[in-house]
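Q: I have 280 residues here and want to know how they pack in 3D. Can you give me a structure?
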Amino acid sequence: MSWRNAVPVLLLSFATPAMAAEGYVLGGGLERDSEGSLGVAALGELGVTAKTWLSATLASNSVELSERADLETVYADLGIDHWLEPIGLRAAVAYWGDDDTLDSMDWRASLYWRSDKPYLSVDFEYRDFSFQLPASGQFSGRELGFDASGLGIAASFDVTDDVSLGLAGMDYDYSVNLGTDRNRSILQLASFSRLSLINSLVDYRVFATLGVAAGERRWQFDVGSWKGEVDGATTRSATVRFLTPLGERHDIEFALGIDDSELYGDASFLSVFLYFYGGS
């Protein structure tokens, strides 16, 4: 699962964060898949006040290619979350992609309601894409621009004291028809693996997550599906996560997952993340 597609899962996982007190969370990890792709990510959250948090993520993916130069993409976001009890507001800006091929600037906003257990949000996202057509022969290359607007919802709640359930979905509307023969042939230049640039151009995405606490440890089971805007290919993903303490302020998380895609076939992936918690 790419970092961009992981965002809704992360939001579901931390839909009710430890905002009752000021503090911070730092995390970092690696992900490797069966196609030779490698991802590295660092993230953090800072409690400015008991009800206002800042968050940031920085991630990089690299894909080893035999017939062309290796692809490296960058993902970065910066967000703010303020809870007004019980209503809250979240806003974020993000960058994703490879500025030599396809990238985007993304703006997100969420209006949410949460209490001690249930959580419900309405989410909006605007994406501004830039696609670089490579030079070929007498063609000097050019830049194409298009945008997409997404509207979605997310919800999570506790089934029991130890079991939680989360759901999220978003649907996108693009300013151009990427499924035409001309646009499809151009954009498929960026399609070759589960971390390919084209996989970020989705028509819709849906996710569900089931969390099970076992003392201080936690199991999480994620399933998701998204449909490509360019060729209509569907990808289904399933991930198992296990979080366990390393000490009073440290956790480690292992995740094992598989993608089943009509575009690039099957791919499995493994990730390891470390988290450090500080403050009051």
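Q: Anything worth noting?
A: Residues 39 and 61 are 4 Å apart (CA to CA). The first strand starts at residue 23 and ends at 33.
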